[in-house]
Design brief:
alpha+beta; Beta-Lactamase; Helix Hairpins; 5-stranded antiparallel beta sheet; 17 strands; about 50% helix; transmembrane; membrane; cell membrane
Length: about 600
């Protein structure tokens, strides 16, 4: 069935039907021509013979009539029959005729067409069946020709010659067989020629089809062999040129796509491209970070790439409807993003929108730091200075009268000076770290004993507050390379913060794991959590989440800033996740290769 649907089959059938139709018309016309030709030639021959017989009989009247008849009968062939009528009473039949086949004279006299030979003295010819002796009409058709016979001083007679058309039909049948045989041979030869021609024509087309499938599969360097120099050869040349141009265009598009991808990936701002219906088409890494923060804020179990913040969708709808740029701001997990949504045009129609997501957390953080820095430093220094000044004045003014009171005041002055010294030392350490002057003493550390030793320092404090302190470390490795003193400083700070901020009878969990990338630590607590507005500023110097500063034990506000610089020095990263009423989790990661 596939053959008839192919170009070869269609072309072969078309040529065959066309030639067959032409041969059919030609055969019909030839058959008609030869049939008429045979009848006309027979008519001419019989008419000529009848006229000759009439002249012979006219030239042999009277005594020579018998001689004339003998000469006349000699002119008649075996297929023809002749009847000579001199008058109603005198008539002759050609020799060889049987009496049973003689045509009655009345037939010639009474037939309207044949009687015109006698009455009008003209030659006539008709095709008619002949009656027999019993006057029954024979179905066989005869060609009958009548020629006037002029007799001296007598009424004109006639010479009738007739012949059965079966002889002509036999000749026609033979001619038809020959024509049909020739037509059959022509059709067979045409079939072979058409199949050969269609195969030769479609062979390059099949090559092009195979090449087209190869190009569709991405093999743009596929070439079609040029077998001829006709239109098909030109088509093959054009196909090869198209393949080269398509490869060039695809390479150009690929380069442009890679360039666009590189640009998007390298952008500091996030980019989200939306379809007309609001479906996300393209995102870059900063935009994915923004969406991950939003997923966590919404409490989604998994990152659903189809979900979009409602604020962004509102800006998208306004941008599409008004065809104007829209600006908004979103806050999630303590970070602030400014969203700029602009309509995206396809020629004259809007086909979507593009949103630029800019993380403004650092800018907001710097603004807040500028506002809070002086207040924080002033507060940290004012308290010990005020206490030292007050107790010093008390000693100078002899308010403390006993030695015990003087020692107590001196002890307070000493403690506050130590506190100021710690503050100054931490500020100097932080300044050296931020300047890149920190030196790491990296060595292989046995992980489990190391972590257990740090936890052991807090057992007394945890037991005093009724806090459950637990360790969950999953690692098949025995040791890991990092600076043990610096990382102990980080863990100590995080654990101390967790214990100081959780309520009594709560839990603090220290967990960790290793993989092919490095080592991960997490310190989770069941405390009240950290307000979202405070999260971006936790790792800034002098920042304290407790604005009242009324805790019994208060730090300098530099611990987390120092911890961040220590982790940065290890080429790692530290982060925090928290929700009010659900606790806080500090996480940091140290890679395997520390440069």
């Amino acid at each position: 069935m596939m053959f008839w649907r192919s170009v070869v089959g269609k072309l072969w059938i078309t040529i065959l039907l066309l030639v067959s139709f032409v041969l059919f018309i030609l055969t019909v016309m030839l058959m008609e021509f030869f049939e008429n030709y045979h009848i006309n030639e027979t008519r001419k021959g019989m008419t000529n013979t009848a006229e000759k017989i009439a002249r012979v009989l006219e030239d042999h009247p009277g005594q020579e009539e018998q001689l004339g008849l003998e000469i006349a009968w000699g002119m008649v062939d075996d297929d023809s029959k002749v009847t000579v009528i001199k008058d109603k009473e005198t008539y002759f039949y050609s020799s060889g005729d049987q009496a049973a086949t003689h045509v009655p004279i009345s037939f010639f006299m009474n037939n309207r067409d044949l009687s015109a030979v006698f009455s009008k003295d003209k030659t006539v010819d008709i095709i008619t069946p002949l009656p027999g002796i019993s006057n029954e009409v024979d179905e066989t058709q005869y060609l009958m020709i009548g020629v006037p016979l002029h007799q001296f001083e007598q009424e004109n007679g006639a010479v009738f010659i007739y012949q059965s058309l079966e002889v002509l039909e036999e000749t026609t049948r033979l001619t038809t067989k020959f024509i049909l045989l020739a037509a059959g041979v022509a059709i067979v030869l045409t079939t072979i020629f058409a199949f050969f021609l269609s195969t030769r024509i479609t062979a390059p087309l099949r090559k092009m089809r195979e090449a087209a499938f190869e190009v569709a599969r991405g093999k743009f360097d596929t070439k079609v062999p040029i077998l001829t120099h006709d239109e098909i050869g030109e088509l093959a040349t054009a196909f090869n040129q198209m393949g080269r141009q398509l490869k060039f265009n695809m390479n150009a598009l690929s380069q442009e796509k890679e360039q666009l991808t590189s640009i998007l990936s390298s952008m500091a701002d996030g980019v989200i491209t939306f379809n007309r219906d609001g479906t996300i088409l393209i995102t870059n890494p900063p935009a994915e970070v923004f969406l991950r923060y939003w997923y966590y804020e919404q409490g989604l179990a998994s990152e659903n790439t189809d979900a979009v913040p409602s604020e962004v969708m509102e800006l998208f709808q306004m941008a599409v409807n008004t065809e104007k740029e829209q600006v908004g701001e979103i806050t999630a997990q303590g970070r602030t993003w400014v969203i700029i949504v602009s309509p995206l045009y396809n020629k004259r129609f809007i086909r979507g929108a593009v949103a630029v997501v800019r993380d403004m957390t650092e800018e907001r953080k710097l603004d807040k730091m500028r506002e809070d820095f002086i207040a924080n430093v002033s507060h940290e220094l004012r308290t010990p200075i005020s206490m030292m000044q007050g107790y010093s004045e008390a000693i100078v003014d002899d308010i403390a009268q006993t030695d015990e009171e003087k020692k107590e005041m001196a002890k307070v002055i000493y403690d506050e000076s130590l506190r100021m010294g710690r503050l100054v030392n931490e500020l100097l350490d932080l300044a050296r770290m931020e300047a890149g002057h920190i030196l790491l003493n990296v060595e292989a550390v046995e992980i489990n004993p190391y972590v257990n030793r740090i936890i052991h320092k807090f057992h007394g404090l945890a037991k005093e507050k009724g806090i459950e302190l637990s360790v969950q470390f999953d690692s098949e490795e025995r040791d890991f390379r990092f600076d043990p003193d610096r990382i102990e400083q980080v863990l100590t700070n995080l654990i101390d913060n967790a214990i100081r901020h959780v309520p009594d009878s709560a839990a603090v969990i220290i967990s960790g794991r290793t993989d092919e990338k490095g080592i991960y630590f997490e310190v989770s607590d069941q405390g009240p959590g950290i307000p979202e507005d405070d999260l971006p500023f936790l790792f800034e110097r002098f920042y304290k989440g407790d604005k009242s500063r009324t805790r019994g034990v208060s730090g300098t506000g530099l611990g987390l800033a120092i911890a961040k610089n220590i982790i940065d020095a290890h080429r790692g990263n530290i982060s925090v996740k928290s929700k009010l009423g659900q606790g806080t989790t500090f996480s940091f990661f140290i890679p395997r290769i520390i440069v």
